[in-house]
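Researcher: Please translate sequence to structure tokens.
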Amino acid sequence: MWELLWSLILLFTFCLLLVWFYFWWEARNDYNEFNWFLYNRSGEWSDGTVPILATTAAGFTYIAFLMVLALCHIALGQQLNLHWLHKIGVTAALLTTIIGVISINQTWGHEWDVIPISLQATGPFLHIGALAAVTALSWIVARQVVHAEKTKFQVVVVLLYFSVLLGLYMVPLYISSPCIMDRSTLKPRPNVIGHRGAPMLAPENTLWSFQRALQMNATGLEADVAIRQMDDASFFNWTDLQQLNAGQWFLKDDPFWTVNTLSPREKDLIANQSVCSLEQLLKLASYHNSTVVFRLRRPPLEHPRYHSWINDTLQAVQRSGVPQSLVMWTPDEHRAQVRQLAPALIQTSVDKLSPQSLEKSGISRLLLRYDQASTQEIRNFTHSNISLTLYTVNEPWLYSVLWCSEVSSVSSAAPQILKKVPYPIWLMHLILYCFICYICERYRMSGMYSYSPEQIMLSAAVRRSSRDINVMKEKLIFSGQPQ
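Model: Translation complete:
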């Protein structure tokens, strides 16, 4: 009974670590967001994902090794019999993972949304892999059923196995992928907007960062903007780099582990970079005919420009000489007044509204986080002539899923990575996907059918209970003793 309990604990720990490892593997799109969160709490920059990934990978490898040994014991008809050291290791892995899940749920809970989104990219392959795993386990299951001594145990094993099969058959009804489609229906490649420039190649919100983004084929530039005390609109940055040398900070802390890939000339250019003003960005965008999107932050109540922040920003836009048709205006305050003074601005909302409400308000573009719009909602916006921009998209798999979902543009902190994605990572026709699942099912059934009725009857005939065998041994022993 205790060994059965430890087997269940081992299985639960393996499943929990599998989900935990998968979460952190897919959350790499937002590693920078997690590191900024840690920086804002501690005041010191460090890559907090490295120790988490290292411990998770080590724990998962260890538990997976024990699971393989457990399957080998089951295949040979033996009990698990975990050593007490392994029991301590399994308990430590289980408790550590539970604490990690609770901590992330409290501090970074919205990131769990990355799992259902990532399943749109990995779901079909995980489904096929699960079918292959169940196919491999069918031999062990069939052997356990054939050689089991108790009918109740046979019934339980068969019910569990077919419950798993039923679950696998139901999975495609809940996990769908926009990349399962006909290639001829694929829409054009989404435009890439440099989120704070190209912060992996240069300090964010600097002119060199925006120039690097344009060099990586970015069609637009995005920045956060705040009003200075005695100056016009300038960029706001979590580290308040207006007062610091952004280049020195970038070279020292190396936030993206990319400094070693830079040439000496690039390092010299970066060393003296500082955060630029909004007007400088607009002039750069005008020169390259690139779209500009900025999210304006209202100054605090005691700020001298608390009431004039919209007018001050609008005047900065007009002074720069940038064509208004290149500027995406996001503030909702005084939108009607702004539309009268600058009618050519691209009215953009950062709040998720229905296409009808956006059209009624005269808004033609929408700026949302990538987890705020489903595939169907993205297509509804597109069909309603609402251009949707999703941020922050740094990984090729996420870019591919959004491409297949018909999104018009994405904001990315890694335009140099998305530049290398001229086509979705994978596309699969629905007929091909169904054919692969059918082949896996046929192979699994052939493994089950290899146990013929005659073989099962023969095994049942020669099967003896442990008690009968012990009685027979005793008879043989005592029959051989002298009278």
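Researcher: Any highlights?
Model: The first strand starts at residue 191 and ends at 195.
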